[in-house]
Design a protein that fits this description.
Helix content: 40-55%
CATH architecture of the largest domain: 3-Layer(aba) Sandwich
Number of helices: 11
CATH superfamily of the largest domain: Bordetella uptake gene, domain 1
CATH class of the largest domain: Alpha Beta
Shape: globular
Largest sheet: 6 strands, mixed
Strand content: 15-25%
Number of domains: 2
CATH topology of the largest domain: D-Maltodextrin-Binding Protein, domain 2
């Protein structure tokens, strides 16, 4: 039986498939939505605490994005629970294009394998918008330490099992995973000391109460430059322009060592696809501006450039990679 003309949604013409009726109305409405978007302020949740790299990044991006969109982009800090507090707020926000989330590879991917129960599904509860930044780590000791190299650090830990301490942000943090890779590769036992942030760990290192830590280069660099900390190695595949004389962990005999943390923008699942695409293109444009690149360089942060399907594919590969790493190290948080 032929459907009445008034409710047909698809018709064939000489030129191919034509969309009519309700389907056409939906497409027209979507196009109009994309063209008029945004009409009010956009909330930009970050999983980071004020004053941290994860707080500075969204504020730098928000300033440029607001100028391009013609509407305010308001950064909202929702730290806590290894990023789970902020990410959960992002997942539960209205999927209308006026709620964005800046989260990390640790929160979205590593936590999936570390925690026995997650408050959200990283793949199902979010629309990936853009990979915006990569933050490298560096292994440091106090400049007063007798440790001059990674080899020295390993020798010290081997000679005093369970006595050499390292700082981290807790089980499953990038700091913890980085050192756990070294511990497993060398068969050494070190004591993890969890901190709420880098300043306290640096203070203890300089006072001789903590032996070492992997930390973000942006935090460590001022102390390295001032001579208070000594950099032993960087945890990325290539040497850093800011620390050209510091070897990579791969150079020192740790194949595939790359524990850099990355930041990405998401919207809650169900956000209109045209708006997700628009935001992705806007972030790509913003990340290419001299202003953003200069401010990121000052933080030793590498701008990202992946949006859409490229970012989705990258994230899928990262799930596989980090899943294998975490499982091999048997790191869990109950």
């Amino acid at each position: 039986m032929t459907a009445p003309r008034s409710i047909r949604t698809l018709t064939l013409s000489r030129s191919g498939l034509a969309i009519t009726g309700p389907a056409l109305a939906l497409l027209v409405a979507a196009a109009a939505s994309a063209q008029s978007y945004p009409t009010r302020a956009i909330r930009f949740i970050t999983v980071a605490a004020p004053g941290t790299v994860g707080d500075i990044i969204p504020r730098v991006l928000a300033q440029e994005l607001a100028a391009r969109l013609g509407q305010p982009v308001v950064v909202e800090n929702r730290p806590g629970g290894s990023g789970l507090v902020g990410a959960t707020a992002g997942a539960h926000s209205t999927p209308d294009g006026y709620n964005m989330l800046l989260s990390t590879s640790g929160t979205m991917i590593v936590n999936t394998f570390v925690y026995s129960k997650m408050p959200f599904d990283s793949l199902k509860d979010f629309e990936p918008v853009a990979h915006v930044a990569t933050v490298p780590l560096v292994l440091v000791v106090s400049s007063a330490s007798t440790v001059k190299s990674v080899k020295d650090l390993v020798a010290m830990a081997r000679s005093s099992p369970g006595a050499v301490s390292y700082g981290s942000l807790g089980n499953g943090s990038t700091h913890n995973i980085s050192m756990s890779i070294v511990k497993k590769a060398e068969g050494i036992d070190m004591v993890q000391v969890p901190y709420k942030g880098s300043p306290a760990a640096f203070q203890d290192m300089m006072a001789g109460r903590l032996a070492t830590t992997f930390d973000f280069v942006g935090f460590s660099l001022p102390h390295i430059k001032s001579g208070k900390l000594r950099a032993l190695a960087v945890g990325v595949p290539r040497r850093l322009g800011a620390l050209p004389d510091v070897p990579t962990m791969q150079e020192l005999g740790y194949p595939g060592f790359d524990t850099a943390m990355w930041y990405a923008v998401y919207t809650p699942a169900g956000t209109p696809r045209d708006i997700v695409r628009r935001l992705g293109e806007e972030f790509r444009a913003v990340l290419g501006t001299p202003s953003v690149r200069e401010k990121f360089a000052a933080l030793t942060v590498e701008p990202g450039n992946l949006i859409g399907e490229q970012f989705t594919a990258f994230q899928a590969a990262q799930f596989t990679r980090w899943g294998n790493i975490v499982k091999s190290l048997d790191i869990r948080v109950e």
